[in-house]
Amino acid sequence: MVNSLLLTFEVRQLLSQLYFISDFHGRWESQTGHNAPLYAPSSDSEWRKQLSVSHAAGLWVKMGAPKEKMVIGMPTYGRTFTLTDRRNFSVNVATKGGGNAGTYTKEGGFLAYYEICEMLRGGKAKYVWDEEMKVPYMIEGDQWVGFDDERSIRNKMKWIQDEGFAGAMVWTVDMDDFTGTICGGGKYPLIGAMREELLGTPRDKNAKDIDWEKVAGKPSKPSATLPPALKIPVSELLAKTKNKKGVQQLPLRDDSEEDDEPVDTASRPPQVMCYVTNWSSKRDGIGRFHVEDIDAKLCTHVVYAFAKLKDNKLAPGLESDIGDDLKEGTYKKLLKLKDKNPDIKILLALGGWSFGSKPFKELTANVFRMNQFVYDAVEYLREHNLDGLDVSWEYPRGEDDKASYLDLIRELRLAFEGEAKSSKLNRLLLTAAVPASSIAIEAGYDVPELSKYVDFFNIMTYDLHGPWEKAVGHNAPLFPIESATSAEKKLTVDHGAKQWMKMGAPKEKLLIGMPTYGRSFTLSDPNKFDIGSPAESGGESGKYTGEAGFLAYYEICDFLGGDNTTLVWDNEQMVPFAYKGSQWVGFDDERSLKTKMEWLKEEGLGGVMVWSVDLDDFRGSCGSGKYPLLKSMTTELAGYKVGLEYDGPYEGTANGGVAKGKKDPNEVTCAEEDGHISYHIDYADCTKYYMCEGERKHHMPCPAQLVFNENENVCDWPEKVERCSAHTQAPPSAK
């Protein structure tokens, strides 16, 4: 509702009466939320706090709607959810979809009021009144239902009168208890309560408000007693098998045995490649960033940008990078991150937008010059104990550049491979920062060939719009708006990633760029702020970054905290933007990055590239702790595994990589007699197990909160399985 208002309506030009409809939360979300709360609960995020009747009505007023023309919508239905964990039933808890369809309305996630009454009188449902939201919700098993009853309706009618609104609109009369035979309060109990409060017209003689708390009762606290272990149902399957000898146990692997050789796997965790810029240490005040500020546990790789070329050789970008006997250099400070995260890789980036294309053209124009650079680069990286090189040629264009770029990448990889074999050291990593534009990809990149040589493509899925344009547009929209032109629809994160896949890049090598900054504009008309509205220039410079049209996330937080700033969530692009007066900024926040991580996992991509850690809220001034954006990504990616399908000529040669042809001793191979069933540990995930049915292997999940107990062949509580005792929590104890 809030987004529809901000993106669709010129409120002052609407002359007829306004009918205000609310459907704030429902099955399209992954957490419980009330359909029409009068006020937002304190557990809501800052964005979700906009999703209430009072806030949305106030926004219409703020935009110029006269109160005497505003008719506030009152639903006679509820929105329902299926809880992930029925023991956790408060507002904003995890769900796994909409609730069960009603007997009569037959729509998942939706119940008419008379269907809700039927559940409340059925003896199993429990009633909860939420004093913050001033509305009730109901629990029955794993079903969660937010709705309005006479009590909440009367509260809302008093609020309408106090605020001076025109009245109430009902959606719809056919979903109230129109027969008067189900709820017990006479015909049309909800509409009757509205009429009584607003018009003073009494309800029918025998009509009365139902105290649902007395009828249904409150939900009780969970019991501290653990239920018995959940047996895996095998009796029916065993009855059909020829082998009646029972369940075959899988011998436990002796973890004390050392593996002589690397282990082959079909997946790996996602990569989180964090760029840090050398100019961030020169910012003023709280914007000044030092590499010691990096949280090493949040990144798998740190890429230091940028080195430069000197006499066609790799050279430090700043004199302070190497340091001297009196002062420690930045390279050594970066290497100290390994004290906190031994697995982190430190790479050096060469190139960048300011560096341009010309130096790379000159470098690759002569094969002897290029080869000398390659071998000097290996020596330079080893001298400073760095783990690899990131090539950021922005951008090769045309067939000559395309061939030269491929030659450079190929020669670097061949040199890295050869040096690793001779030195017996872990191979140096090779990554490439590349554009998201389909035109730029086609113009400069031989994608199938490049895929053989790079470890990862760092796709710059940002700066898709900015102050170089004459209309406002988001820096990094996940998806396009419906009204966009065919060309504009290609300027999205989704399209950029899929273009690389379409042209032959392996999904596991694609790291999707995530910006920790926003692009800002100065609006030509402060009253026109939708996507595509005219802009006269970039937005005002940030206090610390000092660049017009650009704001670090911590500067955006300051902007959002100012008076009269309006925050908008764009449901089409799945990103936020904000405006105040003539200033407009599009950016990513925790919600949009969580959404992008969900998309990334669905697409099976290799991970994220973050530009840049020094633009996130590294001091925690926004109020959500340090690095809120980076943490939102790593939290959402936890547990995600990237499938490894690409079989290139150099795969599995980097540190931590897997040599081909080596079998994982933990891999389960099913070789049973036909019909025989056995159960086996999944060493990678306590909450799952393998079931062998003859030669067929099934990967099975345990129910929520349980782990596989290999001794009993059951899904059991974690504290009963030593290797999984820290995996999940048991039910809370009674207080």
TrEMBL record:
Residues 1-201, 270-640 form the GH18 domain. One of its GO terms (biological process) is carbohydrate metabolic process. SUPFAM superfamilies: (Trans)glycosidases (SSF51445), Chitinase insertion domain (SSF54556), Invertebrate chitin-binding proteins (SSF57625). One of its GO terms (cellular component) is extracellular region. It comes from the Eukaryota. The keyword Transferase does not apply. Keywords: Chitin-binding, Disulfide bond, Signal. Residues 667-726 form the Chitin-binding type-2 domain. GO terms for molecular function: chitin binding; chitinase activity. Pfam families: CBM_14, Glyco_hydro_18. Belongs to the glycosyl hydrolase 18 family. Chitinase class II subfamily. This is Putative chitinase 3. It comes from Folsomia candida.
